[in-house]
Amino acid sequence: STVCYYKDRGRVFIEGLLEIAAADFTYQAPVFYLPEGYYNGKTYILTCWGCEGPVEFRISKDGAVIPWGSVASQHAWVDLSSLSFRL
Known about the structure:
The protein is mainly beta. The chain has no helices and nine strands.
């Protein structure tokens, strides 16, 4: 499914499958940014599942969504559906 995000009762939820291809992956670089109103100036460290096991993501103070660690094998699929945080 396509990566999407929404707010519900003071929480932000991120869902969908994200493919991180090794050729496109830059270590600790954002894969996308949440729009204004979907972040609150705090940094969150969250974990979800990829095809190679658990993957850490950081939601930075400016809304950047950043995979952390080595998730880029040849093609790494990551299920973002477990990512959520309180605003």
